[in-house]
Amino acid sequence: MIQLMKRLLEFSGKQRKNLIASFVFNLLDSVFEMMPIMAILTVLSGLLSVAEGGVMPVSAIWVSLAIMVVSIAGRIFFNNLSCIRRTLGSFSMCSEKRLEIGEHMKHVPMGYFNENRLGEIVAAVTTTLGDIESNAVMVLEKVAGGFIHALVIGVWLLFYEWHIGLLMFAGLAVSMLVYGGIQKAGKRLSPRRQAAQANLVTGFLEYIQGMGVVKAFGLGEMSGKAVNQAIGESADANIILESVFSSLTGVYQTIFKLAKSAILVVAPYLLLGGEITPVKCLLLLVSSFMIYSSVELVGSMASVARVIDASLDRMEAVMDTPVLDEHGGDIPLDHYDIELAHVSFAYGQENVLQDVSAIIPEKTTCAIVGPSGSGKTTLVSLIARFWDVQEGKICVGGHDVKDFTCDSLLKNFSIVFQNVYLFEDTIENNIKFGRPDATREDVIEAAKKACCHEFISALPEGYHTLVGEGGASLSGGERQRISIARAILKDAPIIILDEATASVDPENERELQAAIAELTKDKTIIMIAHRLSTVRNADQILVIDGGTVAQRGTHKELLQQEGTYKKFIQIREQAEGWRIQ
Ligand SMILES: Nc1ncnc2c1ncn2[C@@H]1O[C@H](COP(=O)(O)OP(=O)(O)OP(=O)(O)O)[C@@H](O)[C@H]1O
C-alpha cells in the first residue's frame, strides 16, 4: 500500500502538492470521525453510574454533545478541504497526463502505431486514466486512513485493556494477511482485465472503421466475430476478477466478525475473573462494534486499489515507449539538399530497402516510381524520420536526421499523403493546422492557391463548415486540395507528396495539378509519382524495385534503357490513354 502511494505521488507530477494536502485533510477528517466513540463512551459512563445507584452527571450530556458538535464541524471542514484538493489534484493530474501522452506519441516511431496499439493508447487515455482519475486518490485515502484508524484504536485498547488490545491486533494481523492475498490475486488478474479492455477498444474501433467494407461485402457476421470475442474476453476477465475478489473480501470481513465475537466472549470472562470492572466490560463490548468499522471498508476497496496499481503499470508502459529524438537538437538549416547514403531498412524481420543511395539537391524535383510494394512510401517516410534507418544514413541540409528533434526536422517538411486525414473541425482550422498562427486572410489565400476557395465558399457555412472525422463529408479530390492548402500555408522548404492514384474527373484533375504546381514552386520536392506529366518534368527519377534503386536518371535518359521504367511508362500510357512525345 505504501508502495502504491509512492507510485501515485510520483505519477502525480505537478499535482503532488494537491494530493498530499488531500491525504493530510483526509487523515484529520478521520480523527474527527473517531470522536463519536468518545461521546458514546462519555454517555455510557454516565449511565453506568446511574445503574450503580449514583446520578447521571449533567456534564456528561453536555460534554458528549460538545464532542459531537466538534466532530461534525471538523468533519465538514476537513472533508470539504480534502474533497476539493482531491478533485482538483486527480482531474488536473489526469488531464496533464493525457497531454503528456499526446506529446509523447508525437515522438515515438510510426511503427509503434502499427502493432495494434491504437486500442491500447485509446484505452490508456480513456478507461485507464479514468480509473485513476475517479478512484485512485479517494481509495488510497480510505485504505491508508482505515489502517491508521485501526492502529490508533488498537494502541488505545492496549493501554485500556491489554487482553482486548492484543485480540484486536490479532484480528488486524490476520486480516492484513488476507489483504495481502487480495493484492496478490489482483496482481495476477488485473493485467488480463486491462488487456481485455484494450482489445475491446481496438475491436470496436476496427469494427466501426471497417463498417463500409463490411456492408459492401455483406460480411456482418464475419467482422462481428472479433468484436464478439473481445466482448466475451472482457466479460470473462471482469467476472473472474470480481468473483475472486468478492470471495477473498468475504474472508477478510469474516475475520473481523470473528474477532468481534471473540471480544464479546473474552470481555465477560475478564469481568467474571475480576480483572475488569463492569463499566470497563460494557465499554469494551460497545466499542467492539466500532473498532474495525473503517478497516472493514478497506477490503471492498482492495480490488479497486489493485486495479489502480495495474493502471499505473499500463500508463508507465505507454510513457516508457522509447522516443526517436531523445538526443536530438534544434538545428537551423541554411540549405535543403537531401542525401541518402547506403540506406537499409526492415519492418521487424521483413527487409524492405537495401543499400539505397541518392542525392536530391535543393529546389529540384525527385520523382519516385516503382511497382506496388517496392518500398516507395517507406523511403519517403524514412526521409521524414517516421522510422529510423537500420543501416546507412539520411541527411537533410547536411545534418543526419537523427541529430534533430522531430519538431525541428519536421518543420522543414510539408507532407501531403495520398490518404488525406481531416480533423473533426472547421475547414478553416483544418487548413490552419499547417500554421496555427495564420490569419483568416492567410487561410483564404492558401485555399485560393490550392484551388479550393470556390467550393469552400459555396458551402452553406463556408470556412466554418464542420468536416466529419477523417474528412468523411467531402469528396476525395476536395480533401486532397484542402490538405494541399494546409501544406501551402505551412510553406516548408521540402515537400513530400504522395500523388493520388485514384483517378479524378478532368475538372478536379486540372485543379489538383494547379494546386500542386503552387505548392511545389521553388521547393525541394520528393514525390511518389503516378502520373506521366509529373514524372516527365522531374529533374531526377528514382526507380525503386524490390527495395533497391533499379534505375535513376531523367525521363529521357530512362526511356533509352530497357527495364522497369519503360514498363511503367507503357502501363501508364495505356491507363491514361495518351502518348508522351
Ligand atoms: N508499417 C508497415 N509494417 C510492416 N510492413 C510494412 C509496413 N508498411 C509497408 N510494409 C511492407 O513494406 C513493403 C513496402 O511497402 P511500401 O508501402 O513502402 O511500398 P510502396 O512501393 O509504397 O507500395 P504502394 O505503391 O502500393 O503504396 C511492402 O511489402 C509492405 O507490405
Automatic annotation (TrEMBL):
The keyword Iron does not apply. Pfam families: ABC_membrane, ABC_tran. Keywords: ATP-binding, Membrane, Nucleotide-binding, Transmembrane, Transmembrane helix. The chain crosses the membrane at residues 20-48, 60-78, 139-158, 164-182. SUPFAM superfamilies: ABC transporter transmembrane region, P-loop containing nucleoside triphosphate hydrolases. Residues 20-303 form the ABC transmembrane type-1 domain. One of its GO terms (molecular function) is ATP binding. Residues 338-571 form the ABC transporter domain. It is found in: Cell membrane. It is a multi-pass membrane protein. The keyword Transmembrane applies. InterPro entries: AAA+_ATPase, ABC1_TM_dom, ABC1_TM_sf, ABC_transporter-like_ATP-bd, ABC_transporter-like_CS, P-loop_NTPase, Type_1_exporter. This is ABC transporter ATP-binding protein. It comes from Pseudoflavonifractor intestinihominis.
